[in-house]
Amino acid sequence: MPDNELTELLNRAQRGDDDAREAAFARIYAELKRIAAAELRRNPGATLDTTALVHEAWAKLAANYAGTLESRGHYYSLAARAMRQILVDQARRRIADKRGGGERPAELDEATALADARASEVLAIDQALSRLARRDARAARVVEWHFFGGFTFDEIAVELKLSERTVRGDWALARAVLARELGA
């Protein structure tokens, strides 16, 4: 399906067209699963599986995004951001539980320790990325689309109407800033 047809289908779904919503979800499901799988590979402490993350992101976008989509890439970037937010929220809950917010005491096995460490990493990356976005929104978008969304530099360049070289430069700058902020 050409990008403009998918974009129109997504916009009709956004306006409440149930048939368009079902058709759009069927057409983009595989790509959303690819994005979610990449996201979960980077977050091994997450308790969601790929399907659950896709469905939560789809529901989050349906409930919270009322704007008009500009392109297929615009939708996938929103989906990547929604997945990031879901995983960050999950990490926050995990850390709150670890600090006594839950009803049961934390277990002290290796899996729990790893998941707690990953939750802290996810929060630190999210905070660093938010600070980067205040200084350089485009570089932050490149990180979000590439790292969280699984987009290639060429795909990002097309969506942002930039050269691939410029996108790679933004990526290099963002990585350096984030590494400095994260102490890596």
TrEMBL record:
InterPro entries: HTH_Sigma70_ECF-like, RNA_pol_sigma-70-like, RNA_pol_sigma70_ECF-like, RNA_pol_sigma_r2, RNA_pol_sigma_r3/r4-like, WH-like_DNA-bd_sf
Record carries keyword Transcription regulation: yes
Pfam families xref list: Sigma70_ECF (PF07638)
Record-linked SUPFAM superfamilies: Sigma2 domain of RNA polymerase sigma factors (SSF88946), Sigma3 and sigma4 domains of RNA polymerase sigma factors (SSF88659)
Keyword Transcription regulation: yes
GO molecular function: sigma factor activity
Biological-process GO terms, alphabetical: DNA-templated transcription initiation
Keywords on record: Sigma factor, Transcription, Transcription regulation
Domain RNA polymerase sigma-70 ECF-like HTH: 4-182
Assigned protein family: Belongs to the sigma-70 factor family. ECF subfamily.
Protein name: ECF-type sigma factor
Organism: Tahibacter soli
